[in-house]
Sequence to fold (234 residues):
Amino acid sequence: MTVDLELVPKQKRPAGEPCCEPVVQPDVNAELATRMADIAKALGDPVRLQLVDVLRKHAGKVCVCELVPLFDISQPTLSHHLKKLRDAGIVDSERRGLWAYYYVIPDALKELSVWLT
Amino acid sequence: MTVDLELVPKQKRPAGEPCCEPVVQPDVNAELATRMADIAKALGDPVRLQLVDVLRKHAGKVCVCELVPLFDISQPTLSHHLKKLRDAGIVDSERRGLWAYYYVIPDALKELSVWLT
DNA sequence: CGTCTGCATTGACAATCATCAATTGAATCG
DNA sequence: CGATTCAATTGATGATTGTCAATGCAGACG
Fold:
């Protein structure tokens, strides 16, 4: 991924107006873009998006055993999706006895939300 | 804007029985979740996220020929990313002469943004 | 101790994805 | 007309993803 995005005006084009005004370089640097793309990517699956929705709606910590029956996927697959969300820094989990309780990290989605608006 | 999945209240450990009763619920909002996941998925790539950023910041219509030199990818690959964004309903394009001008559809990102907050 | 339970990990698979080189198509210029 | 230019499409390839069955593992219970 390039970091310097200096625009070079086209040299040869058919006589006439240029195709468009020069574009400024994106002021979202590649690093930040990658971070936000990672968050978006983690949300880019219906199961994970609904997982975040459920966890957020319940504002507390939800046991995995309560999440499994909500979806038509196997338990390992759900665990895989939860790991994706954890790796993206969107959720975190806490173990208590046999159970694992998941919760949305506050302000985890704020970055992306701010950029969107 | 939530996705409407209901949890079964956590029971005490029911030695020898499943921990949760299966929730059979018409998943009315699976469609909405899929739609938003599609948007998020389209943004889940650094190139596409920066493309949206550039197009949005420019607030007008930007020629593809001005976008290509901004990234370290080939022209067909950029065209592929633009198609992904178009398919997700995030951007649209207009052909004028030899050039194709892309622009962000105003309310495309609003859905996801609203859900995020 | 042994067994059960809840969750994570592994391994395997097909499907999708990002990427490029080559080509195609369309529009413009000489 | 032919040559040129911009953008989309095609075909191929290696990487990543979503999924499940099987297994592993740690805590709880008897």
